[in-house]
Write a structure and sequence with these properties.
Strand content: under 5%
Number of helices: 2
Helix content: over 70%
Number of strands: 0
Length: 61
């Protein structure tokens, strides 16, 4: 089995993508709602990732 080396950013993107897909599939009834909810939740994950990253950057001193 090949070893996968992901950076922290790549791992966070992969987590956001997979979580958004699961949330979209299990929470909505129509395909259009699923797609829109999945895209919106992915965007929120990315936004939160960058916001927390900047917060940590400025909070570190």
């Amino acid at each position: 089995m090949p070893k996968v080396n992901l950076t922290h950013f790549e791992a966070a993107l992969l987590f956001a993508l997979l979580t958004s897909v699961v949330l979209g599939v299990v929470t909505k009834k129509t395909d259009k709602e699923r797609l829109l909810y999945g895209l919106r939740s992915f965007g929120y994950f990315i936004l939160a990732m960058f916001a927390l990253g900047w917060l940590m950057f400025f909070g570190h001193g």
